Amino acid sequence: MKWIITLLTSCTFLFSCGKGGTEVVTQPAPTDSLGGWQKITPNIGKALDIVFVSAAKGYIANSSGLYQSSDSGKTWAFMPGVGNGSISTINFMNPQNGYFVGNRYGFTTNSGTNWTTLNTNSSGMDVFFTNTNTGCLAGYNGIERTTDTGRTWIRVLNEIASSIYFPDANNGWAGGRNKIFKTTNGGMNWTPNYADQFGEVMAIQFVSLNNGWFTGMGNNAVYRTTDGGSNWQRVAINGSAYDLHFIDNSLGYVVTRQGRILKSTDGGNTWLQDAKLVDSDFIEVFFLDANHGWAVTTSGTLMRWKR
Fold first, then answer.
1. What is the pLDDT of residues 19-75, one digit of tens each?
2. Which of 7, 17, 89, 280 matches a 20 to 30 Å C-alpha distance to 112?
3. Is residue 11 part of a domain?
4. Is residue 278 part of a domain?
Protein backbone atom coordinates (compact mmCIF):
# COMPACT_ATOMS: atom_id res chain seq x y z
CA MET A 1 0.00 0.00 0.00
CA LYS A 2 1.39 3.39 -0.90
CA TRP A 3 1.61 5.98 1.86
CA ILE A 4 -0.07 9.09 0.47
CA ILE A 5 1.21 12.35 1.92
CA THR A 6 0.69 15.98 1.05
CA LEU A 7 3.46 18.54 1.01
CA LEU A 8 2.73 21.44 3.29
CA THR A 9 1.78 24.67 1.64
CA SER A 10 3.58 27.00 3.95
CA CYS A 11 4.68 30.46 4.88
CA THR A 12 8.02 30.63 6.64
CA PHE A 13 9.16 33.22 9.19
CA LEU A 14 12.59 33.51 10.79
CA PHE A 15 13.19 34.38 14.44
CA SER A 16 16.36 34.45 16.51
CA CYS A 17 16.77 31.29 18.54
CA GLY A 18 19.56 31.08 21.07
CA LYS A 19 23.18 30.33 20.26
CA GLY A 20 23.07 32.01 16.88
CA GLY A 21 20.31 29.83 15.43
CA THR A 22 17.07 30.62 13.63
CA GLU A 23 13.52 29.49 14.14
CA VAL A 24 11.56 28.28 11.14
CA VAL A 25 7.78 28.46 11.62
CA THR A 26 5.77 26.42 9.14
CA GLN A 27 2.02 26.94 8.80
CA PRO A 28 0.51 23.53 7.95
CA ALA A 29 -1.91 22.79 5.15
CA PRO A 30 -4.90 20.48 5.71
CA THR A 31 -3.92 16.89 6.47
CA ASP A 32 -4.33 14.06 4.00
CA SER A 33 -5.78 10.57 4.31
CA LEU A 34 -4.50 7.72 6.46
CA GLY A 35 -2.22 6.41 3.72
CA GLY A 36 0.02 3.43 4.52
CA TRP A 37 -0.42 3.23 8.29
CA GLN A 38 -2.32 0.24 9.66
CA LYS A 39 -4.04 0.44 13.03
CA ILE A 40 -3.58 -2.45 15.48
CA THR A 41 -5.06 -2.70 18.98
CA PRO A 42 -2.89 -5.19 20.89
CA ASN A 43 -4.81 -4.84 24.20
CA ILE A 44 -1.71 -4.44 26.36
CA GLY A 45 -2.64 -1.31 28.28
CA LYS A 46 -0.59 1.87 28.45
CA ALA A 47 2.58 1.54 26.36
CA LEU A 48 5.83 3.28 27.31
CA ASP A 49 8.29 2.21 24.60
CA ILE A 50 8.58 0.11 21.46
CA VAL A 51 11.51 -1.40 19.55
CA PHE A 52 11.94 -4.00 16.80
CA VAL A 53 15.06 -6.08 16.14
CA SER A 54 13.80 -7.40 12.79
CA ALA A 55 10.84 -6.86 10.51
CA ALA A 56 8.98 -9.53 12.50
CA LYS A 57 10.32 -9.45 16.05
CA GLY A 58 9.69 -6.57 18.43
CA TYR A 59 9.00 -5.53 22.01
CA ILE A 60 6.67 -3.15 23.82
CA ALA A 61 7.46 -1.99 27.34
CA ASN A 62 4.79 -0.85 29.79
CA SER A 63 3.91 -0.68 33.48
CA SER A 64 3.42 -4.46 33.62
CA GLY A 65 6.72 -5.40 32.01
CA LEU A 66 7.58 -6.58 28.53
CA TYR A 67 5.53 -7.88 25.58
CA GLN A 68 6.95 -9.64 22.52
CA SER A 69 5.68 -9.90 18.95
CA SER A 70 6.96 -12.30 16.31
CA ASP A 71 4.60 -11.25 13.50
CA SER A 72 5.45 -7.58 12.91
CA GLY A 73 3.18 -6.37 15.70
CA LYS A 74 -0.05 -8.13 14.75
CA THR A 75 -0.13 -10.07 18.02
CA TRP A 76 1.72 -9.70 21.33
CA ALA A 77 2.56 -12.07 24.19
CA PHE A 78 3.44 -11.05 27.73
CA MET A 79 6.87 -12.18 28.98
CA PRO A 80 6.37 -13.08 32.66
CA GLY A 81 9.23 -12.45 35.06
CA VAL A 82 11.08 -9.96 32.85
CA GLY A 83 11.78 -6.70 34.67
CA ASN A 84 9.78 -7.51 37.81
CA GLY A 85 7.34 -4.70 37.11
CA SER A 86 7.28 -1.50 35.12
CA ILE A 87 9.72 -1.07 32.21
CA SER A 88 9.99 2.48 30.94
CA THR A 89 12.58 2.10 28.16
CA ILE A 90 13.99 -0.68 26.01
CA ASN A 91 16.88 -0.22 23.60
CA PHE A 92 18.92 -2.57 21.41
CA MET A 93 22.55 -1.90 20.52
CA ASN A 94 22.28 -4.47 17.74
CA PRO A 95 19.80 -7.28 16.97
CA GLN A 96 21.29 -9.50 19.71
CA ASN A 97 22.15 -7.14 22.57
CA GLY A 98 19.33 -5.24 24.26
CA TYR A 99 18.79 -3.38 27.53
CA PHE A 100 15.83 -2.10 29.54
CA VAL A 101 15.33 0.18 32.54
CA GLY A 102 12.39 0.72 34.84
CA ASN A 103 11.88 -0.62 38.34
CA ARG A 104 14.91 -2.78 37.54
CA TYR A 105 17.62 -2.94 34.91
CA GLY A 106 18.04 -5.91 32.57
CA PHE A 107 19.76 -7.09 29.43
CA THR A 108 19.70 -9.80 26.76
CA THR A 109 22.44 -11.25 24.55
CA ASN A 110 20.23 -13.41 22.32
CA SER A 111 17.74 -10.98 20.81
CA GLY A 112 15.35 -11.17 23.76
CA THR A 113 14.86 -14.92 23.98
CA ASN A 114 16.31 -14.75 27.51
CA TRP A 115 16.70 -11.74 29.77
CA THR A 116 18.88 -11.19 32.83
CA THR A 117 17.21 -8.91 35.37
CA LEU A 118 19.53 -7.37 37.95
CA ASN A 119 18.40 -6.24 41.39
CA THR A 120 19.60 -2.72 40.71
CA ASN A 121 17.12 -0.09 41.83
CA SER A 122 16.71 2.06 38.76
CA SER A 123 15.29 5.54 38.32
CA GLY A 124 16.25 5.39 34.68
CA MET A 125 14.28 7.00 31.89
CA ASP A 126 16.62 6.04 29.05
CA VAL A 127 19.61 3.77 28.45
CA PHE A 128 22.20 3.50 25.68
CA PHE A 129 25.09 1.05 25.25
CA THR A 130 28.02 1.61 22.88
CA ASN A 131 29.38 -1.92 23.30
CA THR A 132 28.27 -5.02 25.20
CA ASN A 133 29.89 -3.79 28.42
CA THR A 134 29.79 0.01 28.33
CA GLY A 135 26.66 2.10 28.56
CA CYS A 136 25.00 5.11 30.17
CA LEU A 137 21.69 5.41 31.97
CA ALA A 138 19.80 8.71 32.07
CA GLY A 139 17.30 9.37 34.84
CA TYR A 140 16.20 11.36 37.85
CA ASN A 141 19.54 10.68 39.54
CA GLY A 142 21.43 12.14 36.59
CA ILE A 143 23.60 10.09 34.25
CA GLU A 144 25.23 6.87 35.42
CA ARG A 145 27.84 4.85 33.54
CA THR A 146 28.71 1.16 33.55
CA THR A 147 31.60 -0.85 32.11
CA ASP A 148 30.35 -4.28 33.25
CA THR A 149 26.99 -4.59 31.45
CA GLY A 150 25.13 -2.81 34.23
CA ARG A 151 26.21 -4.84 37.23
CA THR A 152 27.68 -1.66 38.75
CA TRP A 153 27.03 1.99 37.93
CA ILE A 154 28.99 5.18 38.61
CA ARG A 155 27.27 8.56 38.55
CA VAL A 156 28.94 10.93 36.08
CA LEU A 157 26.40 13.81 35.96
CA ASN A 158 24.32 15.10 38.87
CA GLU A 159 21.56 16.76 36.84
CA ILE A 160 18.30 15.15 35.71
CA ALA A 161 18.59 13.58 32.27
CA SER A 162 15.64 12.08 30.43
CA SER A 163 17.07 11.03 27.06
CA ILE A 164 20.49 9.90 25.85
CA TYR A 165 22.09 8.91 22.53
CA PHE A 166 25.56 8.01 21.20
CA PRO A 167 26.32 8.07 17.45
CA ASP A 168 29.68 6.43 18.20
CA ALA A 169 31.63 5.08 21.17
CA ASN A 170 33.05 8.46 22.24
CA ASN A 171 30.52 11.12 21.33
CA GLY A 172 27.13 11.32 23.02
CA TRP A 173 24.33 13.74 23.81
CA ALA A 174 21.81 13.79 26.63
CA GLY A 175 18.79 15.95 27.31
CA GLY A 176 17.40 17.11 30.63
CA ARG A 177 15.17 19.98 31.71
CA ASN A 178 15.84 22.88 29.36
CA LYS A 179 19.41 21.62 28.80
CA ILE A 180 21.43 19.55 26.37
CA PHE A 181 24.69 17.90 27.52
CA LYS A 182 27.54 16.48 25.46
CA THR A 183 30.35 13.99 26.04
CA THR A 184 33.42 13.32 23.90
CA ASN A 185 35.00 10.57 26.02
CA GLY A 186 32.40 7.83 26.06
CA GLY A 187 30.25 9.31 28.81
CA MET A 188 32.93 9.71 31.49
CA ASN A 189 32.46 13.50 31.51
CA TRP A 190 29.53 15.66 30.41
CA THR A 191 29.43 19.39 29.66
CA PRO A 192 26.47 21.71 28.91
CA ASN A 193 25.93 22.16 25.18
CA TYR A 194 22.69 24.12 24.79
CA ALA A 195 20.03 25.67 27.02
CA ASP A 196 16.62 27.17 26.23
CA GLN A 197 13.03 26.98 27.44
CA PHE A 198 12.13 23.75 25.61
CA GLY A 199 11.05 21.80 28.70
CA GLU A 200 12.09 18.25 29.51
CA VAL A 201 13.76 16.55 26.56
CA MET A 202 11.62 13.61 25.47
CA ALA A 203 13.84 12.27 22.69
CA ILE A 204 17.29 12.99 21.27
CA GLN A 205 19.02 11.31 18.32
CA PHE A 206 22.12 11.80 16.18
CA VAL A 207 22.71 9.89 12.94
CA SER A 208 26.24 11.29 12.59
CA LEU A 209 28.58 13.54 14.55
CA ASN A 210 26.98 16.60 12.92
CA ASN A 211 23.30 15.81 12.38
CA GLY A 212 21.01 15.56 15.37
CA TRP A 213 17.53 16.38 16.67
CA PHE A 214 15.58 16.55 19.92
CA THR A 215 12.06 17.24 21.16
CA GLY A 216 10.90 18.94 24.38
CA MET A 217 7.87 18.27 26.58
CA GLY A 218 4.91 20.43 25.58
CA ASN A 219 6.93 22.16 22.87
CA ASN A 220 5.39 22.41 19.40
CA ALA A 221 8.77 22.11 17.73
CA VAL A 222 11.68 19.92 16.72
CA TYR A 223 15.21 21.18 17.38
CA ARG A 224 17.90 20.31 14.85
CA THR A 225 21.64 20.78 14.41
CA THR A 226 23.85 20.20 11.38
CA ASP A 227 27.14 21.15 13.01
CA GLY A 228 27.43 18.84 15.99
CA GLY A 229 25.51 21.06 18.40
CA SER A 230 27.42 24.30 17.79
CA ASN A 231 24.10 25.77 16.69
CA TRP A 232 20.53 24.56 17.19
CA GLN A 233 17.54 25.54 15.06
CA ARG A 234 13.97 25.44 16.35
CA VAL A 235 11.53 24.19 13.70
CA ALA A 236 7.90 24.71 14.70
CA ILE A 237 5.39 21.95 13.89
CA ASN A 238 1.64 21.45 14.23
CA GLY A 239 1.32 19.61 17.54
CA SER A 240 3.25 18.91 20.71
CA ALA A 241 6.22 16.77 19.61
CA TYR A 242 6.95 13.74 21.76
CA ASP A 243 9.19 11.13 20.20
CA LEU A 244 11.23 11.19 16.98
CA HIS A 245 13.17 8.74 14.85
CA PHE A 246 15.49 9.55 11.94
CA ILE A 247 16.58 6.80 9.56
CA ASP A 248 19.35 8.85 7.93
CA ASN A 249 20.38 12.49 7.49
CA SER A 250 17.20 13.25 5.55
CA LEU A 251 14.34 10.91 6.44
CA GLY A 252 12.71 11.14 9.85
CA TYR A 253 9.42 10.94 11.74
CA VAL A 254 7.90 12.73 14.72
CA VAL A 255 4.84 11.70 16.72
CA THR A 256 2.75 14.19 18.67
CA ARG A 257 0.55 14.15 21.72
CA GLN A 258 -2.40 14.97 19.48
CA GLY A 259 -2.37 11.62 17.67
CA ARG A 260 -0.44 12.71 14.58
CA ILE A 261 2.62 11.42 12.74
CA LEU A 262 4.78 13.86 10.81
CA LYS A 263 7.47 13.05 8.25
CA SER A 264 10.53 14.97 7.04
CA THR A 265 12.59 14.23 3.94
CA ASP A 266 15.04 17.13 4.31
CA GLY A 267 16.62 16.51 7.68
CA GLY A 268 13.85 18.12 9.72
CA ASN A 269 13.95 21.51 8.02
CA THR A 270 10.34 21.04 6.88
CA TRP A 271 7.70 18.48 7.84
CA LEU A 272 4.98 16.69 5.91
CA GLN A 273 1.91 15.98 7.97
CA ASP A 274 -0.06 12.77 7.86
CA ALA A 275 -3.65 12.47 9.03
CA LYS A 276 -4.75 12.53 12.64
CA LEU A 277 -4.42 8.80 13.11
CA VAL A 278 -5.77 8.19 16.62
CA ASP A 279 -7.60 10.03 19.38
CA SER A 280 -4.98 9.31 22.06
CA ASP A 281 -1.44 10.66 22.45
CA PHE A 282 1.44 9.05 20.62
CA ILE A 283 4.34 8.30 22.95
CA GLU A 284 6.93 6.42 20.84
CA VAL A 285 7.90 5.88 17.21
CA PHE A 286 10.45 3.40 15.88
CA PHE A 287 11.64 2.65 12.34
CA LEU A 288 13.76 -0.39 11.59
CA ASP A 289 14.43 1.00 8.10
CA ALA A 290 12.63 3.12 5.55
CA ASN A 291 10.14 0.32 4.86
CA HIS A 292 9.19 -0.84 8.38
CA GLY A 293 7.95 1.44 11.16
CA TRP A 294 5.74 1.41 14.24
CA ALA A 295 4.22 4.03 16.51
CA VAL A 296 2.40 3.44 19.79
CA THR A 297 0.07 5.55 21.93
CA THR A 298 -0.34 5.93 25.66
CA SER A 299 -3.54 3.86 25.44
CA GLY A 300 -1.71 0.98 23.75
CA THR A 301 -2.94 1.51 20.19
CA LEU A 302 -0.27 0.51 17.67
CA MET A 303 0.19 1.95 14.20
CA ARG A 304 2.31 -0.04 11.74
CA TRP A 305 3.85 1.30 8.55
CA LYS A 306 5.00 -1.09 5.83
CA ARG A 307 5.90 -0.06 2.31
1. 444 343 333 333 334 467 888 877 788 899 999 999 999 999 998 899 999 999 999
2. 280
3. no
4. yes
